[in-house]
């Protein structure tokens, strides 16, 4: 089953046209890395898929539905997003941030039911942050904040999770852990994961599919295939 | 346990408000003992004291309660929406917008030839709403283009100064009598709101606060920014409109009747965050409303005891909080 489908889309960032007539398919349960040079349009593409940006032309389908026709509440049950924005709000406890992920399922006041509390605890456990529940977001490291934001996306219980550079700001073990976690979510829970990254080696090792953006062209490549792996490397090789 | 702590704090806040209300009503040109106040409220005792308490002191205390509640709730919503700890109706120029509306109205009254008192007070509120709504709409239009919140804040301050300049031009051309009433209005006063005006103010404040209740869930999600809020199912456009309408009514109405009262909307949400130690608006909104009520009563007691205009007192209370927030932010970064 195809979870994310781009149909001939044209997408711009401000006045800069990044993609023209781009099409793409991502299967359910795939862990996909989105790679490309700085400014190639990785974040813009992710924003368009989660409905925060409309393509000038073409359509984006999520689980067979046109993103532009979905209401925010409907979209929130299909796609969870982790952006590069750093959330450092004083007095905001980690457990409350993760609980926000339950927003699409709670009433108008955002009251959590016992089942919601369970899902929040579960999400914290999955990212190994149970002990951090009562800490506040302004007193944590970047990596810890990133894990909390991922836990929040997990609590949202969506079939698709999009992450914009989830491994940036992290040290080497931290990057490995996040990449492994994302791969296990796709493998074990059947989630469709799409994340942008500059860590080519990690992406190749952990992902079933790599999407390469190069000069406005979007290519879907298999990292296990040596020839296709060569193409990925060529984009990032330093010119001699 | 945070829950028990919250209940304790809410109880203490309500008790503090009750005590401060009695103290506020006891303070004034003639001191009235708390027991006499309670008797007068129940319609017992000296007829002149009953008149003073019921018609002057009670109205003033109620105005203090309402202005504290309204400005603090408006400030809290602005701070979350703009994701800026220094946002508030005064700083963003919303109070100035309301002042411009009132200035046009008061200085223009002779030209309009209005004599009805009810029409005059309704006109003041209407003018203040239009003025503050205009500034808010301008800020919204700008904030969709400008992402840097510091720039929005600076623009708010610039707008406020620009409006003050326009008001000065209006004053220059205004008649002597209307000029005097405008200048008196700018000093801010909680004591001039009585009878029908009090009822209009109460309806506006209750209405504005009622609109802020459905904003609680979006406000919580907006703590993470608009993109995150949207990704978790918030209709950001609708939430923004709701929050703006609510703040316009709250800040605009208070400014119309009590004059431009600064710093309460900015400082009180911070005081409540410190006391309740939370970022959850389900707690913070009622907490700010109650803290605002208590703070405003305290300011009014100080204002009456020292014979100072109310906005001088609120500035003296608010500025230290503002400085503290600026310093704390420096350290976080």
What are the defining features of this structure?
heterodimer, A: 240 residues, alpha/beta, 6-stranded mixed β-sheet, 4-stranded antiparallel β-sheet, globular, B: 333 residues, 14 helices
With strands numbered from the N-terminus, the spatial order across the biggest sheet of chain A is 6-7-8-3-9-10
Rg from alpha-carbon coordinates of chain B: 20 Å
Q: What is the rounded Rg of chain A?
A: 18 Å
Number of strands of chain B: 0
- Enumerate how many helices of chain A there are, as a single number: 8
Secondary-structure-based class of chain B equals mainly alpha
Task: Describe the protein in words.
The complex is a heterodimer of chains A (240) and B (333). With 240 residues, chain A is an alpha/beta fold. Chain A has eight helices and ten strands. Chain A has helices spanning 42-49, 72-75, 94-100, 114-126, 142-155, 172-189, 200-206, 226-236; strands spanning 2-13, 16-27, 31-36, 57-62, 65-66, 79-82, 160-164, 192-196, 209-214, 217-221. Chain A has a six-stranded mixed β-sheet with strand order 6-7-8-3-9-10, with helices on both faces. Chain A has a four-stranded antiparallel β-sheet with strand order 2-1-4-5, with helices on one face. In chain A, a hairpin with a 2-residue loop joins strand 1 and strand 2 (16-27). In chain A, helix 4 (114-126) crosses helix 5. Chain A is globular and about 50 Å long. Chain A starts with a strand and ends with a helix. The mean pLDDT of chain A is 90. Chain B is mostly helical. Chain B is built from 14 helices and no strands. Chain B has helices at residues 2-26, 34-41, 47-81, 94-112, 117-145, 149-173, 176-186, 195-212, 216-222, 226-231, 236-258, 264-276, 281-306, 310-332. In chain B, helix 4 packs antiparallel against helix 5 (117-145), helix 5 (117-145) runs antiparallel to helix 6 and helix 8 runs antiparallel to helix 11. The radius of gyration of chain B is 20 Å and the shape is globular. Chain B starts with a helix and ends with a helix. The model of chain B has no long low-confidence stretch (mean pLDDT 88). Classes of the chains: A alpha/beta (240), B mainly alpha (333).
């Amino acid at each position: 089953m195809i979870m994310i489908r781009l149909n001939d889309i044209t997408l711009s960032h401000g006045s800069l046209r990044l993609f023209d007539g781009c099409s793409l398919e991502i299967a359910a349960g795939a862990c996909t890395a989105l790679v490309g040079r700085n400014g190639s349009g990785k974040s813009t593409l992710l924003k368009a898929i989660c409905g925060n940006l409309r393509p000038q032309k073409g359509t984006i389908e999520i689980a067979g539905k046109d993103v532009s026709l979905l209401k925010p509440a409907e979209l929130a049950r299909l796609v969870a997003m982790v952006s590069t924005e750093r959330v450092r709000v004083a007095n905001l406890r980690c457990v409350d941030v993760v609980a926000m992920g339950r927003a699409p399922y709670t009433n108008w006041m955002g009251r959590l039911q016992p089942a919601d509390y369970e899902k929040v605890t579960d999400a914290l456990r999955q990212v190994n942050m149970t002990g951090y529940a009562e800490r506040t977001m302004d007193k944590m490291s970047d990596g810890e904040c990133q894990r909390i934001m991922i836990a929040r996306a997990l609590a949202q219980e969506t079939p698709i999770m999009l992450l914009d550079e989830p491994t940036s700001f992290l040290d080497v073990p931290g990057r490995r852990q996040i990449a492994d976690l994302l791969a296990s979510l796709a493998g074990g829970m059947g989630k469709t994961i799409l994340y942008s990254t500059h860590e080519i080696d990690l992406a190749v090792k952990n992902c079933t599919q790599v999407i390469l953006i190069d000069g406005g062209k979007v290519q879907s490549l298999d990292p296990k295939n040596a020839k296709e792996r060569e193409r990925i490397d060529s984009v990032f090789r330093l010119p001699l | 346990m945070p829950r028990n702590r919250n209940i304790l704090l809410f109880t203490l806040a309500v008790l503090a408000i009750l005590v401060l209300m009695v103290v506020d009503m006891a303070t004034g040109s003639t001191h009235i003992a708390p027991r006499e106040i309670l008797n007068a409220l129940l319609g017992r005792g000296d007829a002149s004291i009953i008149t003073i308490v019921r018609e002057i002191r009670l109205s003033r205390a109620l105005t203090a309660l309402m202005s504290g509640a309204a400005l603090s709730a408006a400030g809290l919503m602005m701070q979350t929406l703009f994701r800026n700890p220094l946002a508030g109706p005064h700083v963003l120029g919303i109070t100035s917008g309301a002042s411009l509306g009132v200035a046009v109205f008061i200085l223009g009254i002779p030209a309009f030839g209005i004599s009805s008192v009810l029409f005059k007070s309704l006109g003041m509120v209407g003018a203040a709403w239009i003025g503050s709504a205009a500034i808010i709409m301008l800020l919204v239009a700008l904030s969709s283009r400008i992402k840097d919140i510091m720039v929005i804040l600076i623009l708010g301050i610039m707008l406020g100064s620009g409006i003050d300049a326009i008001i000065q031009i209006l004053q220059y051309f205004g008649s002597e009598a209307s000029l005097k009433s405008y200048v008196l209005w700018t000093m801010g006063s909680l004591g001039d709101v009585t009878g029908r005006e009090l009822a209009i103010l109460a309806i506006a404040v209750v209405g504005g606060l009622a609109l802020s209740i459905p904003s609680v869930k979006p406000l919580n999600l907006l703590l993470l920014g608009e993109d995150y809020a949207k990704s978790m199912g918030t209709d950001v456009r609708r939430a923004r409109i709701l929050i703006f309408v609510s703040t316009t009514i709250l800040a605009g109405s208070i400014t119309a009747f009590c004059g431009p009262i600064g710093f309460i909307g900015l400082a009180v949400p911070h005081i409540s965050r410190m006391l309740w130690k939370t970022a959850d608006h389900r707690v913070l909104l009622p907490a700010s409303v109650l803290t605002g009520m208590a703070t405003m009563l305290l300011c009014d007691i100080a204002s009456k005891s020292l014979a100072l205009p109310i906005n001088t007192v609120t500035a003296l209370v608010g500025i230290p909080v503002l400085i503290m927030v600026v310093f704390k932010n420096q350290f976080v970064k």
